[in-house]
Amino acid sequence: MQIWVICIGNEILSGHTLNTNLAFIGDQLIQEGYEITRECTIPDDETVIAELLRESLAQADLVITIGGL
Questions:
Q1: Helix, strand or coil for residue 47?
Q2: CB 67 within 8 A of CB 21
Q3: Left (φ > 0), alpha (ψ -120 to 50) or beta: where does 38 sit?
Q4: Is the pTM of this model over 0.70?
Q5: Lower Cβ count inside 10 Å, N or C end of the chain?
Q6: Close Cβ partners of 44 (under 8 Å, ≥ 6 residues apart)
Q7: DSSP classification of residue 7
């Protein structure tokens, strides 16, 4: 199963915020017998978000997004 996690936020990319959400999601998936096959951290940019969502929805079985206001 292809599970992609898209983390959205300039604060994560800048290093000002530790991405504890990704660690939590990865741990929970492992406990259920799944694992993340791809993770992308992208900026708060509408064009970048839309492009990656299109790509991930075409290729992954499950897409989880976190962050991004």
A1: helix
A2: yes
A3: beta
A4: yes
A5: C
A6: 8, 9, 10, 68, 69
A7: E
Task: Tell me the residue type at 5.
Answer: V
- Whether the Cβ atoms of residue 63 and residue 2 lie closer than 8 Å to each other: no
| Among the listed residues 50, 54, 60, 58, the one whose alpha carbon sits nearest the alpha carbon of residue 5 | 60
User: Strand, helix or coil at 45?
Assistant: coil
**Residue with the two structure tokens 């999601």:** 25
pLDDT digits (tens, 9 = 90+) for 19-69: 999 999 999 999 999 999 999 999 999 999 999 999 999 999 999 999 876
